[in-house]
């Protein structure tokens, strides 16, 4: 299992092996250069200055050029690591983001029923960024640290093993300090992230609910909630800065302490005449190479933990199998006639055992207009979601034109069905964009025709920019009735043979309801239509009314037949006190 996980991780490097190789090459070269420069200094201070003045001058000039060239190489290496490495990480992050978004699109309703949108969003943003950092900094830091540390150790042991051991002896203390404080820092940063997430959540809630906030006059209370989150973030940041202060200055002190140890021990060895001044200078120049790997390795462990936990959260999502997938032999059904049959359908949602529908058997003929009534929670919406396969039946089957819908591709099945619900979801963008959603390649003429059919053309023409008017996030700039008519225009354009209206007019005022009802009836012509109605007055004229109860279809018939029966339907009718 574990191996598998990291094998999968390695797969993301595959398209970028060239960049990865270049990144590693420059990391190795850059680290090697930092090992060479002090050796040149040693040669100058230990050998060149004791040569004949003329030759010494010449050599110094040559070596100065060599050192400048080495620094230039180091610059180029660092530049490439920063660009090639980061670009590679960013590309891999983009690939993963595409992959997770694609996966989200494939997941079923049952998955989204149980998730918070904010968390699904952070998988795609923050978590992937952490992984991206790990992708390139991880291998770079490990390679650079190993080369610098081992290289320095070998060189120093060769120059003077006693002094090299003294210098190395102080490193474990530094390592422990760095490790402890890095852990504290990591936890502090995690607290910062949690606090900012709280602020985001609070902000999202208050801003989305701004109309409720204002209507209740609760601005002060919202301010209070926000302020406490804001202060908590400040406190968290202050404590993080305190830890960061100790960490950074502590690491500075340790570096100086290593220097002091080297100077003191070096002075002793100088007095004993076992060490040359040039060697001591060389040692001093290597101290950074000694301490840098510690900082890097410690920051690598932090990056690794962040990246790995982000990666695990990413895998958690990627490993969710969609409940509803196309059968291997699924066919594209083209355009359906619209005969729908439910055969002994049983259904319950995954998280409960109680059946919402049991033994539902029902035939709807192509072109028929059928109304479905039932008390709230009876399962009307559920029954409708089974037709486009938003959920699969627990047992039994649903056929359209005599074919089990599980044998059709989901795309071709859903292409044949238009759904209009009470809550209209419109996307940010213009009126035209939203109507075109029903048929992406529609011409402007088709869009206008659809709008006219949906009784929407007139009000659209009165908007400031007509069809090009921006409707705001989720259509906030439109009235309920206008939004519903746009959603109908969208379905007119899609032109499906099967329609489902799920309480499409129940949120509307009487006047809008009449207009929308008129459009709905126009849309329903020559299509198989299943209407769930909240107000019985809107379905009085339906030739066939089904009454859904917990025990399935309890009654069916025309309004007059059902009233004569004096059963469940008649009872509903009396409760509503409908006179129309
Ligand atoms: P209706 O549309 O007739 O009012 P629904 O089909 O919406 O009824 O709901 C039928 C039952 O299924 C209710 O008890 C409801 O709580 C439950 N239910 C609806 N949607 C879900 C869901 N996504 N997950 C779990 N239970 C659900
Ligand atoms: Mg419902």
UniProtKB/TrEMBL annotation:
<dbReference type="InterPro" id="IPR036640">
    <property type="entry name" value="ABC1_TM_sf"/>
</dbReference>
<feature type="domain" description="ABC transmembrane type-1">
    <location>
        <begin position="24"/>
        <end position="306"/>
    </location>
</feature>
<dbReference type="InterPro" id="IPR039421">
    <property type="entry name" value="Type_1_exporter"/>
</dbReference>
<dbReference type="GO" id="GO:0005524">
    <property type="term" value="F:ATP binding"/>
</dbReference>
<dbReference type="InterPro" id="IPR027417">
    <property type="entry name" value="P-loop_NTPase"/>
</dbReference>
<dbReference type="InterPro" id="IPR017871">
    <property type="entry name" value="ABC_transporter-like_CS"/>
</dbReference>
<feature type="transmembrane region" description="Helical">
    <location>
        <begin position="159"/>
        <end position="181"/>
    </location>
</feature>
<dbReference type="GO" id="GO:0016887">
    <property type="term" value="F:ATP hydrolysis activity"/>
</dbReference>
<keyword id="KW-1133">Transmembrane helix</keyword>
<dbReference type="InterPro" id="IPR011527">
    <property type="entry name" value="ABC1_TM_dom"/>
</dbReference>
<dbReference type="GO" id="GO:0015421">
    <property type="term" value="F:ABC-type oligopeptide transporter activity"/>
</dbReference>
<dbReference type="Pfam" id="PF00005">
    <property type="entry name" value="ABC_tran"/>
</dbReference>
<feature type="transmembrane region" description="Helical">
    <location>
        <begin position="246"/>
        <end position="270"/>
    </location>
</feature>
<dbReference type="InterPro" id="IPR003593">
    <property type="entry name" value="AAA+_ATPase"/>
</dbReference>
<feature type="domain" description="ABC transporter">
    <location>
        <begin position="340"/>
        <end position="575"/>
    </location>
</feature>
<keyword id="KW-0067">ATP-binding</keyword>
<feature type="transmembrane region" description="Helical">
    <location>
        <begin position="61"/>
        <end position="82"/>
    </location>
</feature>
<protein>
    <submittedName>
        <fullName>ABC transporter ATP-binding protein/permease</fullName>
    </submittedName>
</protein>
<keyword id="KW-0812">Transmembrane</keyword>
<dbReference type="InterPro" id="IPR003439">
    <property type="entry name" value="ABC_transporter-like_ATP-bd"/>
</dbReference>
<dbReference type="GO" id="GO:0005886">
    <property type="term" value="C:plasma membrane"/>
</dbReference>
<keyword id="KW-0472">Membrane</keyword>
<feature type="transmembrane region" description="Helical">
    <location>
        <begin position="20"/>
        <end position="41"/>
    </location>
</feature>
<keyword id="KW-0547">Nucleotide-binding</keyword>
<dbReference type="Pfam" id="PF00664">
    <property type="entry name" value="ABC_membrane"/>
</dbReference>
